[in-house]
Write a structure and sequence with these properties.
There is one protein chain. By secondary structure, this protein is α+β, with helices and mostly antiparallel strands. Helices cover 35% and strands 26% of the residues. It contains four helices and six strands; from the N terminus they run ββββββαααα. A three-stranded antiparallel β-sheet has the order 4-1-6, with no helix packed on it. A hairpin with a 5-residue loop joins strand 2 and strand 3. The longest helix has 49 residues. It starts with a strand and ends with a helix.
Length: 238
């Protein structure tokens, strides 16, 4: 189904000097905003009845959401009525008719097939096999499981013993290496035999014995600071 026209009518009740807008609208069911919105401006006009037909571009009916009439400004709407005209699209499904663009022959429905459901619990051979348990077979399985468990425990115990021995051997080797390194004192002898070249470091030339003149720039700065200090002190007594 496709909507082709929106026909609406209502009566606007308002004062001619008031501003008033009337929105006839439908929300977009497939997204945000409105799929249709028509606005009538009654600003500066007296109230009256209106009958209007608005053509739309054959919008699918699935896109039309909830409709409403919204008044913006001063006034009200009475006796509203909204009608939608629509038409049927025979080619909405291209497989419905060979005359539709992009027509594809429909896939025939598969023929029903009867299946025989097999339930193993209803098989007499299965029932006979599960009715009783061979005691010897049960004992043999338990014995095999116990032997496998004992073998696994033995391998685990042997592995733990091997790892403990390896740690002890590694610890003994590390301690022997440390003792050898501490006792090997001759390695430091080459450093003791080296001589560092030296000599006599003479004093730098001394400063002259004559007086060094004062810095005139520093003297002026000190004098300026002294004058500023006296000025600040004197200002307190004024």
């Amino acid at each position: 189904m496709e909507v082709s026209n929106v026909i609406y009518q209502y009566t606007a009740v308002k004062d001619p000097s008031d501003d008033m807008l009337v929105h006839v609208q439908n929300e977009n069911a497939q997204g945000e905003g409105y799929i249709f919105r028509e606005t009538d401006d009654w600003s500066g006009l007296p109230g009256n009845s209106i009958h209007k037909i608005v053509a739309v571009n054959n919008i699918p009916i699935g896109s039309w959401g909830d409709g409403s009439i919204q008044v913006e400004g001063k006034g009200e709407v009475t006796d509203p009525n909204v009608v939608y005209t629509y038409k049927y699209d025979p080619c909405f499904n291209p497989q419905s008719s060979p005359s539709c663009p992009g027509y594809q022959p429909p896939i025939p429905e598969p023929e029903p097939v009867d299946y025989d459901v097999y339930n193993a619990l209803d098989d007499q051979a299965v029932l006979d096999a599960t009715k009783e348990t061979d005691p010897e077979l049960y004992d043999r399985d338990n014995k095999r499981r116990n032997e496998m468990k004992e073998q696994a425990d033995a391998r685990l115990e042997k592995g733990l013993a091997a790892s403990e021995n390896a740690l002890n051997i590694a610890s003994d080797l590390a301690q022997a290496f440390m003792i050898d390194a501490m006792a090997n004192e001759q390695r430091f002898d080459p450093y003791y035999a080296q001589n560092i070249p030296g000599g006599v470091y003479r004093d730098a030339p001394p400063l002259p014995t004559k007086d060094i003149p004062d810095n005139k720039q520093g003297l002026r700065n000190n004098l300026a600071q002294q004058l500023l200090h006296e000025k600040m002190v004197n200002s307190q007594y004024k």
